[in-house]
Amino acid sequence: MTGQAVTSIDARHIGMAYGQTVALRDVSLSLGRGEIVAVTGASGCGKSTLLHCLSGILRPDQGEVWFQGRNLAAESEQARSRLRRTAFGVLFQFGQVVAELTAIENVALPLQLGGRRYRDAAAIARRRLEQLGIGELSDKRPGEMSGGQQQRVALARALVTEPDVLFADEPTGALDSLAGEQVLAGLVRLAREQGTAVLLVTHDAQVAAYADREITMRDGQVEFGGRITVEEVR
């Protein structure tokens, strides 16, 4: 496929509807390797649905989503789920950390699901927590943390496998400004260090300012900024 050497995700003519409600209309966009792209727009414009299609959570009704030579829209649910444990990281507005597990156990979980022994997985998880400034919370459970701390644990978990792409859906939407800034600063820094591309869904212009490029959506369509060229990535 054209541009595969520099592209992490290439979505072509994506369409998605919920019953009679059209969520996405002929959406095409590309995400370059290591690039941070913000997807913005009013509530209900299709931002989250787009993220869900690109990350394989949903299979679009129409179109193709290419990743490393594979059309995710044609992959099974099992194959797409496997990608989200390895090549993709996903971070939601409410981090969805497991309440019964400690911070280090939460972060180690994706590595264990990938076959790592707990001892090795926990050592990597501890480093991620320390990189995000919350190493002292390793043995704490979510109920003993603030919302911002829980979200940084969720971020550490999303990045612990060093994914090719991180999908972040309103990752600071439930946080105050200080906690949100801490999460975003950590997200950008670790993504840059790992070479992870980021698709960042947000309605907040201050959050979008952390990105390299902004895509604006309206009524299920991309208004501007949807595609990139090889020259732009270089």
Q: What fold name goes in the CATH topology slot?
A: Rossmann fold
Mean pLDDT: 91
Biggest beta-sheet profile: 6 strands, mixed
Q: In which order are the strands of the major sheet placed?
A: 6-7-8-3-9-10
> What proportion strand?
25-35%
Q: Which architecture does the CATH hierarchy give at level 2?
A: 3-Layer(aba) Sandwich
Shape: globular
CATH class value? Alpha Beta
List how many beta strands DSSP finds.
10
**Low-confidence spans: pLDDT under 50, at least 5 residues?**
1-5, 229-234
The structure class reads alpha/beta
- Rg, rounded, reads 17 Å
Distance between the termini: 18 Å
| CATH homologous superfamily label | P-loop containing nucleotide triphosphate hydrolases
Give helix and strand order, one letter per element, not per position: EEEHEEHEHHHEHEHEEH
The percent range for helix content is 25-40%
Q: What's the number of domains?
A: 1
Number of H- or I-type helical stretches:
8
Describe the protein's architecture and organization.
This protein is an alpha/beta fold and 234 residues long. The chain has one domain (7-233): Rossmann fold (3-Layer(aba) Sandwich), CATH 3.40.50. It is built from 8 helices and 10 strands. It has helices spanning 47-54, 77-86, 103-113, 118-131, 147-159, 177-194, 205-208, 230-233; strands at 7-18, 21-32, 36-40, 62-67, 70-71, 88-91, 165-169, 197-201, 213-218, 221-224. A 6-stranded mixed beta sheet has the order 6-7-8-3-9-10, sandwiched between helices. A 4-stranded antiparallel beta sheet has the order 2-1-4-5, with helices on one face. Helix 3 crosses helix 4 (118-131), helix 3 runs parallel beside helix 5 (147-159) and helix 5 (147-159) runs parallel beside helix 6. The longest helix has 18 residues, at 177-194. The model is unreliable at 1-5 and 229-234 (pLDDT under 50).
